[in-house]
Structures are given as structure tokens and as C-alpha cells.
Design brief:
The chain is α/β, with parallel strands linked by helices. It is about 25% helix and about 25% strand. The mean pLDDT is about 95. The structure holds zinc ion (2 copies).
Length: about 375
């Protein structure tokens, strides 16, 4: 039986601790993966601050890429039917739908399953389904997808859960038409994924509102045509004016909220053109509420679309996007910081200070 180190949040506000525990031989449809990189997500940082409901001591991390260490006796393919063997690189996000609820079977929308994260919140001494660990234990029913050897792991983990989240959101949006004007609020991994997918979809102007400068620079390399730096436009009025200026006074056909800050909602709605669509993605874990004037939504024929989490097909699509575009776009360079497992707290702090474009934890990193 393997023993694996794992990074455990024992309580919000406490430094992350490194615990050790067993990872049993996989049974049935289970798989044990040696973690190569775990993405550090803004959500992990929100957990450490107590801004997301704390379920009790937990292994952190929900973005993983690693090599198959051992397959359960029933496993010979990934969840798209591709043959899989020990040593293969795989990508997963530890969301495991129950397939026995209204969302899973009646709506056929597993992203709404209320039982999505059971293993993630277990006692940290049980085999971790989470990713801040040397070995993750993927239970039967948890989708994972093979990453081809010609695709750098950084190109996939660069966006972590953000790329499948945005692929799901783009699907719910109903796509972007050629030449449409797009505004992206925020340029963390979710915002950067939005920029890239808008560019690949054929958008016209893509204006990014965010910061700091290194993220805005990456946004330009991924397809943004114009950036509005929060440092230069610190108040909502100046940002709205900058966006109206950049969109010839009309506003954007599509505004994508990727900030996670509740103040962004009213601001984004003011940037939306008549007949436009406002896509809310980043506010998944943001506390607070915002006033809305329903008449504006009515009079301007606006559509407000929410989208949370992702479905297994979006993880598969995320691998395909990385595979086909990593040559042309600097996907792998989005990974700006690497930390060993025992510096998980430093990684979270760096993400909290927005020093990173994307930080990853490399459990084998010395
Ligand atoms: Zn995430
Ligand atoms: Zn369910």
C-alpha cells in the first residue's frame, strides 16, 4: 500500500498542513494516479479565507494532471473510451455525479447534481480524490481523460477547472457569432479562457477589463484586442466609459463576468449592448447581492445567463483545445509559478496576492 503526502486545510485561517495517509490498491473501477501537477484555483484560496462553506478538514485541490499508477481490474479505457494503461497522462476534476438524482437523470445536467463532491470532503486520512497530494485515488464514476503525449501537461492544467467551466458556459451562452463584440470582466484563468474561446469562435473586438499587467499581457497574447487596466481605471464609471469607447458607444454583444466580485454584476450589465447577452461565470463563490433594474433587462432585450461548473464532456473538450492549439497559442506559458507540495500555503498566498497568472503544485518538485 502506498503512503501519500497531502495538503490539508484543517480550518479556515489556519496554515495548510502536510499529512500522510495510505492510498490503497485500486479495486473495481478505481484508478490511482501519481499527481504531476495540481492547479491552484481561486476557489482554493476562498476556502482558506472561509468564503466558501467549510465542510471540515479537507484535502485541497480540484484540478489535476498525472500519470496512471495503477488501474482497478475493471478499467481499460478512459471516460471517452480511449485505451488507458499505467504511465499514461490523464486529466481530471474531482466532481463525481451521483447518477441517482433529478439533475443527473431527469435534467441530464450533472453540473447541477447536489452530490457532486462527496470524496473531496472526506476525512483527509482517507484516499484523496482531491489533487494537492502525491497520489490521488479516482473512484469509479469519476471522469478522467487521457492527455496525448504530444500535448504538454502545462497546456491543460494552465486553465485547470477554468477551461471546462468556460466551455460549459459558452455552450449555455449559445456561442458567439463572427465579428461580435465581447467584453471579458476579469483576467484570471477563467477570464483568460474566455478570451481564448471568444477569439477561436470568431469574435471581433475583445476587450478585457482587469489586472494586473502580466495577466493583461497574457490576455492580449491569447486574443484580446484591447485591455482596460483596473489600476488606470479604478472606478466603475471610468471602466464603463472605456468599454463604451472601445465598442463605438454601443456596448458589447456579449459580456462575460469572470471576476468573482459581486460589484462586477451591475458594471457588466451597463457594458452590455441592447439585444446583448450577459454571461455570469465567476460569481460562483462570491457572497453578497446586487440591485437590478428589471426594466433595463426588458427594454433592452437583454439575456442574463448563469453557468456553474462543468460536465464531463467539457473536460474532454479542454484536452482537445490544449492538444490542437498549444502550438499556436502560449497555453503552457500561462503556468507562471510552480511550488512543491510542502509549500502549498505559499502557493495559495501567491494566488491571493494575484502575483501569478496560474500557479501549480508539483508534488514531485524538489
Ligand atoms: Zn478551480
Ligand atoms: Zn446527481
Amino acid at each position: 500500500m502506498r503512503i501519500a503526502k497531502r495538503a490539508v486545510l484543517t480550518a479556515p485561517g489556519s496554515p495548510v498542513e502536510i499529512w500522510e495517509g495510505p492510498v490503497p490498491t485500486p479495486a473495481g473501477g478505481d484508478v490511482v494516479v501519481s499527481v504531476e501537477m495540481a492547479g491552484v484555483c481561486g476557489t482554493d484560496h476562498h476556502y482558506t479565507l472561509g468564503e466558501v462553506a467549510f465542510p471540515g478538514p479537507m484535502v485541497l485541490g480540484h484540478e489535476g494532471i498525472g500519470r496512471v499508477e495503477e488501474l482497478g481490474p475493471d478499467v481499460n479505457t478512459d471516460y471517452a473510451g480511449e485505451p488507458i494503461a499505467p504511465g499514461d497522462l490523464v486529466y481530471w476534476v474531482p466532481l463525481k455525479p451521483c447518477h441517482r438524482c433529478h439533475a443527473c437523470t431527469v435534467l441530464e445536467d450533472v453540473s447541477l447534481c447536489p452530490h457532486l463532491s462527496p470524496g473531496r470532503f472526506k476525512d483527509p486520512l482517507t484516499p484523496p480524490i482531491a489533487t494537492y497530494t502525491e497520489y490521488a485515488s479516482l473512484p469509479a464514476g469519476l471522469s478522467f481523460f487521457r492527455v496525448p503525449e504530444d500535448t504538454p501537461p502545462e497546456a491543460v492544467i494552465a486553465f485547470g477547472c477554468a477551461m471546462p467551466t468556460m466551455l460549459h458556459a459558452m455552450e449555455r451562452l449559445g456561442g458567439i457569432s463572427f465579428g461580435q463584440r465581447v467584453v471579458v470582466q476579469g483576467c484570471g484563468p477563467v477570464g483568460l479562457a474566455a478570451v481564448m474561446l471568444a477569439r477561436l469562435a470568431g469574435a471581433g473586438d475583445i476587450v478585457v477589463v482587469g489586472g494586473p499587467a502580466l495577466r493583461l499581457e497574457m490576455a492580449k497574447r491569447l486574443g484580446a484586442t484591447e485591455t482596460v487596466d483596473l489600476a488606470a481605471a479604478p472606478d466603475a464609471e471610468s471602466r464603463i466609459a472605456a468599454v463604451l469607447d472601445a465598442t463605438r458607444g454601443r456596448g458589447a454583444d456579449v459580456v462575460i463576468e469572470a471576476t468573482g466580485r459581486v460589484e462586477a454584476f451591475a458594471e457588466g450589465l451597463s457594458m452590455t449592448a441592447r439585444g446583448g447577452r450577459y454571461l455570469i461565470v465567476g460569481l460562483w463563490s462570491a457572497p453578497g447581492s446586487s440591485e437590478l433594474t428589471p426594466r433595463i433587462v426588458n427594454n433592452a432585450n437583454l439575456r442574463i445567463i448563469g453557468s456553474a461548473l462543468s460536465r464531463p464532456r467539457h473536460l474532454h473538450q479542454a484536452v482537445e483545445v490544449a492538444r490542437h492549439y498549444h502550438h499556436r497559442l502560449p497555453l503552457a506559458e500561462v503556468v507562471s509559478h510552480r511550488f512543491p507540495l510542502d509549500q502549498a500555503q505559499q502557493a495559495l498566498d501567491a494566488v491571493g496576492r494575484q502575483e501569478t497568472i496560474k500557479a501549480v503544485i508539483v508534488p514531485g518538485h524538489q
